[in-house]
Structure formats: C-alpha cells, structure tokens
C-alpha cells in the first residue's frame, strides 16, 4: 500500500493521498523519439516542472491502461511503466538504507512506528540522480500531474508475512496537508518492482468486488475484496480525493501479507500544490484533525 512519509524527514501515514481534480490522459504515448523537458513534466512546458529540475532524456511511455475501478475508488493499472533496468536499479539503490517503516500519527502529524505496517523502506530526494530524475519525469508525463507536485520516491520491501493494513494516503492532520508543504495528496502511483509468488496484493476494502472475482485465485487477505496482484514493471494509480477535492473514503487501501517470495515497490505521492516548498516546522502548534481537506 501507499503511505509512508515524505522525503526529508517525514515518514509514514495513518493516511493516504489527497488533492484536486486530475484525470487520466486519453493518450499518453507520443512519438518514440526521445524528448527533453516539455512532455516529461506532465505534458506541459518544462518551466511547469519543479524549480531547478534538471532536463533529462527519456522514452515516453506507451503501455496499456486498465480500469480497476472507474469510481469509488478511481483506480487504474498502468502496465509496464517501469523497465527491467529501472526496477533493478531502484532495488539495488535502496538495499543498504532500508529501515523499519513508520506511519504518520493522526493527531501530531509526526512519524511513529506501528504494528499496522511491518515493511521496510527508504526515501530518495527528488532528482536524487539521473535515473530517478528520469523516472520522475516519466511519472509526470503519464499522470499529467506536474513533477514539482510529487514527493521523492519511497522504496518498500515486504518479506514473507510483512504487510500494511488498510489506510488512506490523504492526511488526517492539518500540518502535513498545509499548502506550504504541498497541500493534500491527490494521487498515489504504486509501482511494483518484483512479482511475489503469492500474496502481496494491493486491496481496496471499500471498493466494489468484481463480478468475476474468484476467491481461489487470491490470498486469504484479498479474498472477497477489490484488488490487484503486483507484477514487476506495472503500477497502480489511484486518487485519494474526489474530483471536487473532498477526501475519498473509497481510496482506503492496504498491502496484503506476502505469502511466498518477496515484494519490492516504489511509491510516488502527488499533491495539489508544489511539494515541500517550505521546511516542516516540527515545533509549530498542531491544528486539530479534521475531515475537511486543507
């Protein structure tokens, strides 16, 4: 599942994503010729990207989009968005810095440890290196959400039995959702770096179960739920806010325990405003939690 914290000191979430009205592009592929800047940053001119974002060359994505749920939640599978090389790179790059994952405390907005999340993870700053910058540019081009509105990538590792219970990516506190830090999370792109042999599904417990759902095909955790199986190179894109900007309770999601094999994933959270244009002041007064989207 998707929540954790932001690169630059904040981790985890007892919440998941948030943001404004954003839809999938009807056609995300362009000519196969390599492009710089412009299309990479959400299909807009490169000055709409993150301030100081380096120009990189990348191949525009031309994979398939599959609708997992058109509404309640809005969730889509993007096939083969990452290459074999990109998957291997992110796994190798993260190995030495993986630590126990945290969540965001709903009252204080600070990172804390919790039994609801037992994975291990690490963060990369935005534009960490050329490869990660290229991946960030590709994500902006596919989602049509400006690169500057995204958090740095979070890499997660789930061994056998490890999981993340159902949660939202949008923030429940008003500190993390402050406009100076990017506002609410609007969408999450959850990229699968490996294909576990069994388990590790991403589930949406509040979503409508497909008519052709066969419980025998799923791990115990995912039986009778709307879900997808992780497959290397694919990504799940879902929105945590409704088109009107309200928090979407149907975006509740979780990562089922891995039963066999190992699961690596990379998460990109995207916000309604440019992300982290000001530092988080941990000593500031915490405003009361509210269901109103900041």
Structure description:
The protein is mainly beta and 294 residues long. It has helices spanning 84-94, 130-143, and strands spanning 35-36, 57-58, 65-69, 75-78, 99-100, 103-104, 111-112, 120-123, 154-158, 164-167, 185-192, 198-199, 202-204, 226-228, 235-239, 253-255, 258-260, 263-271. The strands form five sheets. Strands 3-4-15-11-18-9-8-5 form an eight-stranded antiparallel beta sheet, with helices on one face. Strand 6 and strand 7 (111-112) form a beta hairpin. The radius of gyration is 17 Å and the shape is globular. It starts with 34 loop residues before the first strand and ends in a 23-residue tail after the last strand.
Write the layout of secondary structure elements.
Blueprint: E1 35-36, E2 57-58, E3 65-69, E4 75-78, H1 84-94, E5 99-100, E6 103-104, E7 111-112, E8 120-123, H2 130-143, E9 154-158, E10 164-167, E11 185-192, E12 198-199, E13 202-204, E14 226-228, E15 235-239, E16 253-255, E17 258-260, E18 263-271
- Level of helix content? under 10%
* Beta-strand residue percentage: 15-25%
Rounded to an integer in angstroms, the radius of gyration calculated over CA atoms is 17 Å
Report the sheet with the most strands, covering strand number, pairing sense and barrel closure.
8 strands, antiparallel
Q: Could you spell the SSE succession in H and E letters?
A: EEEEHEEEEHEEEEEEEEEE
How are strands sequenced across the largest beta sheet? 3-4-15-11-18-9-8-5
Helix count, DSSP H or I runs of 4 or more residues: 2
| Overall pLDDT | 77
Shape: globular
């Amino acid at each position: 599942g998707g929540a954790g914290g932001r690169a630059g000191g904040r981790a985890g979430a007892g919440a998941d994503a948030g943001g404004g009205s954003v839809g999938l592009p009807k056609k995300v592929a362009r000519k196969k010729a390599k492009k710089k800047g412009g299309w990479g940053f959400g299909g807009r001119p490169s000055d709409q990207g993150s301030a100081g974002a380096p120009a990189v060359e990348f191949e525009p994505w031309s994979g398939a989009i599959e609708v997992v749920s058109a509404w309640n939640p809005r969730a889509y599978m993007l096939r083969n968005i990452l290459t074999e090389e990109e998957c291997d790179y992110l796994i190798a790059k993260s190995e030495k810095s993986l630590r126990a994952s945290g969540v965001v405390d709903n009252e204080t907005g600070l990172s804390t440890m919790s039994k609801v999340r037992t994975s291990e993870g690490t963060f990369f700053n935005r534009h960490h290196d050329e490869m990660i910058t290229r991946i960030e540019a590709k994500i902006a081009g596919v989602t049509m959400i400006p690169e500057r509105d995204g958090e740095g990538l979070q890499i997660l590792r789930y061994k056998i039995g490890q999981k993340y219970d159902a949660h939202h990516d949008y923030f429940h506190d008003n500190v993390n959702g402050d406009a100076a830090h990017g506002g609410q999370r609007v969408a999450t792109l959850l990229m699968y770096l490996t294909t576990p042999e069994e388990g590790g599904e991403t589930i949406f417990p509040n979503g409508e179960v497909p008519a052709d759902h066969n419980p025998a095909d799923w791990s115990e955790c995912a039986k009778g739920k709307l879900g997808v199986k992780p497959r290397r190179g694919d990504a799940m894109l879902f929105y945590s806010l409704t088109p009107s900007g309200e928090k979407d309770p149907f975006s509740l999601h979780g990562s089922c325990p891995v039963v066999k094999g190992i699961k690596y994933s990379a998460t990109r959270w995207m916000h309604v405003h440019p992300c982290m244009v000001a530092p988080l002041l941990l000593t500031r007064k915490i405003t009361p939690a509210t269901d109103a989207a900041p």
